[in-house]
Amino acid sequence: MSRVLIVLGLVLVAIGLLWRWAERLGLGRLPGDIVIKHENFIFYFPITTGLLISAVLTLIFWLANR
């Protein structure tokens, strides 16, 4: 259990450090991400970005367990 928490913490730190770099690549603004803007309201739902991140993390964890 402690190993999982350490790895999860390291992954979160890495994501935090790489966030600015990922924004430059266009993550968060991919086709399929939903953005609804009104006068004083913005709704953002990153469907495509979430699917892409999920696929990459699945591949990483699958390779780590081999």
List the helices and strands and how they pair.
Elements: H1 2-25, E1 34-37, E2 42-45, H2 47-64
Antiparallel strand pairs: 1-2
Describe this structure as you would to a colleague.
The chain has two helices and two strands; from the N terminus they run H-E-E-H. The chain is α+β, with helices and mostly antiparallel strands. It has one domain (2-64). The model has no long low-confidence stretch (mean pLDDT 87).
Mean pLDDT: 87
Q: Roughly how much helix do the residues carry, as a percent range?
A: 55-70%
Computed over alpha carbons, the radius of gyration is 15 Å
Overall number of domains: 1
Number of strands: 2
- Summed up, the helix count is 2
Alpha-carbon distance between the termini?
A: 19 Å
Task: Identify low-pLDDT runs.
Answer: none
How are the strands of the largest sheet arranged? Answer: 1-2
| Range of strand content | 5-15%
Structural class: alpha+beta
Q: Per the principal axes of the C-alpha atoms, what is the gross shape?
A: elongated
H and E order: HEEH
